[in-house]
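Q&A log
Question type: sequence-to-structure
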Amino acid sequence: MDNAKELLHRSYDENLSPEEQKVLDLALQKDPGLQNEKVVLEQIRARLSGYQADFSSDFSNKIISKIYGFNQQDDFIKLFRAIALSGVAAILLILLTIYFTDGSLGLDALYGLTGYSPNEELFSYLN
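Response status: OK
Response body:
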């Protein structure tokens, strides 16, 4: 069956040898499913015979102009702006967190030293 189906498909693209044509003809006589497939394939071929896939006449010019018109500097500026704004938003979020946690934005609060006495040694900060 699969061989007959393959022969049917090949018969539309190339000439079959006499032996292959005999096998295909016998399979078509015996198998109504293969006959239906042949009818469907012929209908598809008839519908597609008049179809012509063409691009518009200025298609290549449009593509080339888009390639050359691509401005990398504009994209860099947009990307930089997005990164800078997200960085500023992150810094503001950190400052708000420090303010709400410690109650002020002094240097001690920014460095995280609000709970320590100024008389303690630096070594005690590291432990």
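Response note: The chain is about 75% helix and 0% strand.
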